[in-house]
Design a protein that fits this description.
Layout: H1 14-39, H2 63-82, E1 84-87, E2 90-93, H3 97-104, H4 116-141, H5 150-171, E3 177-179, E4 182-184, H6 187-195, H7 198-206, H8 214-217, H9 231-244, H10 248-278, H11 293-305, H12 317-348, H13 350-368, H14 373-390, H15 395-399, H16 404-419, H17 430-437, E5 441-445, E6 450-452, E7 457-458, E8 460-466, E9 469-473, E10 479-484, E11 489-490, H18 493-496, E12 502-503, E13 507-510, E14 514-520, H19 521-528, H20 532-550, H21 576-582, H22 586-620, E15 624-630, E16 638-644, H23 650-655, E17 692-700, E18 708-716
Keywords: cGMP, cGMP-binding, Ion channel, Ion transport, Ligand-gated ion channel, Membrane, Nucleotide-binding, Sensory transduction, Transmembrane, Transmembrane helix, Transport, Vision
InterPro entries: CNG_cation_channel, cNMP-bd_CS, cNMP-bd_dom, cNMP-bd_dom_sf, Ion_trans_dom, RmlC-like_jellyroll
GO molecular function, one term: intracellularly cGMP-activated cation channel activity
Length: 718
């Protein structure tokens, strides 16, 4: 069968062309990466780490074991399927009871500082304690407990006693404690420590069943006074709750107010007891028995403790002594509570007061030195924004009070996610990044503030924590090139640039309120001293970033060649040196090159003509004398004449440079004429070839005042 001929308008598949181009591009990139890997083995490999080789499979178990395993799996899977509740035509899945029990199961040891379940249990004990503290005096003094409602009071009392017993027998013996700096979690040790403490003794006394006296003296709440001795659990709950609350000062204010109300409650109970002892309505000072007895007595207690006055005068000696003790107790208690309230509120507003003090001092300073109002307004804005966003003016002051490990833990939770996004630090040692987190400085920029200006020496790297910044450029420096948001990084090349830093190429301005992290070059160098491997990686990446920064901006996309031409790659760019020689593009540059070539040929022809004319002149002269002047270290020049035949080869003339031609006449020697000497005939210069040189030199005369002596010497050439 003959092969089918291709049609004239044969077209390739564009999708296939695109896939081939992509494969070629990836192969080139991979080749480049492996070349860099061979040059610098520090860089990490682009290939993913190989997975662990699969372990050899165990031989299949026998049939009996398979059946046992299947039964176990079915038994385990059944509880997951059966826990559904049908309600109102709907099916709800509820967790199994085992999960509830596993969650509610008490651990062998309890950490009283971090275990929230222990705090919840202390809250129950505190509620039972407050019930006893508030209602035992009330039921003992006021006639609110009657035979008709006694059973309800007894039920609540029993519930409170159960809480006391559970705390004594189950929870407190499991609480961890410190011994010599070690946390003791042994059951016997914890139980022994609790039994040897004062808290255990008070807890035991608080649960002693004095209620058995009900059978002999009747039901009297006074026999439950020992329940008020469990005050240690109440104060422990307050401490643990304040430790986990975000705004603990609110609870402190509520607790202090509760103290005041409880003291007024006790005073009201005492007033009713005193009125009952004197007789209700017997005098003007006692309670007359009208209205709500508790509210009337509580009102009297408030006016007495706060010393408002306007109360009836006591009549009897008992009334006078009671009133005096009440006044003294009221002054002491009320003043102490007011002082405690002041401390609580002062501690809650300490940060706000510090902020106001700093701002007032700054404003006073600016007014003293007549700072412009524009600058003063910006300073006030900075103070207000910093305080509103952070709750403090300087975060480092708070962290300095903590150990280094705690500072690192907080810095990792707050800033590690941001720093880990920086491409410059990817592949570096994790501990090096941790050390760097402790050195970051947080700075707030106002809207319109210049983060860095064009032309400045860059010595810092910036990480945007919050807000936006704009990179400005263009002819006027006001065109927005790009907007960077939270998590972006700029200026990282300045950290590793050689020569002390590189200059900023654009202005960076805060678009709004921007909170930035700053890492300077000095700090990074101090860290890299301890991490040489990370330093190599950073230096390598810095070189790559500098190369990418030096590349020109990408122009319009070049159309991809189609068909088989795409396999050969794109045509390489014309060398810059050749472009500079051409000085233009297209026909203009080529014409200039031809013009320069013609001018060079014309200049060469003129030079040849001059040489031929010089040769023709030399043939008419008897001899040519060429003088060469050489200057030596001494102050006397030496004139050397070479006597050569005028017939020279043109190749020698082209190779030797042109030498200055000296006059052929030799100056006469300055000597006095002697009568004895005969006049010498004039020297006759004969034509021919000689191997001698004529050397003329000047030397000072040995006789003072006679000047210099001219010497003429004939010397053979070597």
């Amino acid at each position: 069968s003959t092969p089918k001929a291709r049609p004239e308008g044969f077209k390739t598949n564009e999708y296939a062309d695109g896939q081939l181009q992509e494969i070629v591009r990836k192969m080139r990139e991979r080749t480049t990466v492996y070349k860099e890997k061979l040059k610098d083995p520090v860089l990490s490999s682009p290939e993913s780490s190989p997975t662990a080789s699969p372990s050899k499979k165990k031989p299949p178990p026998p049939a009996k074991e398979e059946k046992k395993e299947e039964k176990k799996e079915e038994a385990e899977a059944k509880p997951e399927e059966d826990h559904y509740c049908d309600m109102l035509c709907c099916k709800f899945k509820k967790p199994p009871v085992k999960k509830y029990m596993a969650y509610l199961q008490l651990p062998d040891s309890i950490d009283s500082y971090t275990d929230r379940r222990y705090v919840a249990w202390l809250m129950l004990v505190t509620i039972a304690y407050n019930w006893n503290c508030w209602f035992i005096p009330l039921r003992f003094v006021f006639p609110y407990q009657t035979p008709s409602n006694t059973k309800y009071w007894l039920v609540i009392d029993i519930i409170c006693d159960i809480c006391y017993l559970c705390d004594l027998l189950i929870f407190q013996p499991r609480v961890q404690f410190l011994k010599g700096g070690d946390i003791i979690v042994n059951k016997m040790e914890m139980k022994k420590f609790y039994h040897s403490s004062m808290k255990f003794r008070l807890d035991v006394i608080s649960v002693l069943p004095f209620e058995v006296l009900y059978f002999f003296f009747g039901i009297n709440p006074a026999f439950r006074v020992n329940r008020m001795l469990k005050h240690n659990s109440f104060f422990e709950f307050n401490d643990r709750l304040e430790a986990i609350l975000d705004k603990a000062y609110i609870y402190r204010v509520i607790r202090t107010t509760g103290y005041l109300l409880f003291i007024l409650h006790l005073n009201a109970c005492l007033y009713y007891w005193a009125s009952d002892y004197e007789g209700l309505g017997s005098t003007r000072w006692v309670y007359d028995g009208k209205g709500n007895m508790y509210l009337r007595c509580y009102y009297w207690a408030v006016r007495t403790l706060i010393t408002i006055g306007g109360l009836p005068e006591p009549q009897t000696l008992f009334e006078i002594v009671f009133q005096l003790l009440n006044f003294f107790l009221g002054v002491f208690v009320f003043s102490s509570l007011i002082g405690q309230m002041r401390d609580v509120i002062g501690a809650a507003t300490a940060g706000q007061n510090y902020y106001r003090s700093c701002m007032d001092n700054t404003v006073s300073y600016m007014n003293t030195y007549s700072i412009p109002k524009v600058v003063q307004n910006r300073v006030r804005t900075w103070y207000e924004y910093t305080w509103d966003s952070q709750g403090m003016l300087d975060e480092s002051e708070l962290l300095e009070q903590m150990p280094t490990k705690m500072q690192l833990a907080i810095a990792i939770d707050v800033n590690f996610a941001i720093v880990n996004k920086v491409d410059l630090f990817k592949g570096c040692d994790t501990q090096m990044i941790y050390d760097m987190l402790l050195r970051l400085k947080s700075i707030v920029y106002l809207p319109g503030d210049f983060v860095c200006k064009k032309g400045e020496i860059g010595r810092e790297m910036y990480i945007i924590k919050q807000g936006e910044v704009q990179v400005l450029g263009g002819p006027d420096g006001k065109k927005v090139l790009v907007t960077l948001r939270a998590g972006a990084v700029f200026g990282e090349i300045s950290l590793l640039a050689a020569g002390g830093g590189n200059r900023r190429t654009a202005n960076v301005v805060a678009h709004g309120f921007a909170n930035l992290f700053i890492l300077d070059k000095k700090t990074l160098n101090e860290i890299l001293v301890h991490y040489p491997d990370s330093e190599k990686i950073l230096m390598k990446k810095a070189k790559v970033l500098l190369k990418e920064k030096g590349k020109p901006a990408p122009g319009p996309p070049v159309p991809q060649p189609r068909g088989l031409a795409s396999l050969f790659g794109q045509k390489q760019e014309t060398p810059k040196l050749f472009k500079a020689m051409i000085g233009g593009k297209g026909k203009t540059g080529l014409a200039m090159l031809l013009k320069l070539k013609r001018e060079q040929e014309v200049q060469t022809e003129k030079t040849k003509e001059k040489k031929e004319a010089r040769k023709r002149k030399q043939t008419n002269k008897p001899i040519e004398n060429k003088a060469r002047i050489d200057f030596y270290k001494d102050r006397h020049p030496i004139y050397s004449f070479d006597l050569n035949k005028n017939e020279k080869k043109p190749e020698q003339d082209e190779k030797k440079p042109l030498e200055p031609v000296a006059s052929s006449t030799v100056p006469a020697q300055k000597e006095k004429p002697n009568a004895d000497t005969k006049p010498t005939p004039p020297a006759v210069m004969h034509r021919g070839i000689t191997n001698k040189s004529l050397i003329i030199s000047m030397s000072p005369s040995p006789i003072a005042g006679e000047g210099e002596i001219l010497k003429v010497e004939v010397e053979e050439k070597k």
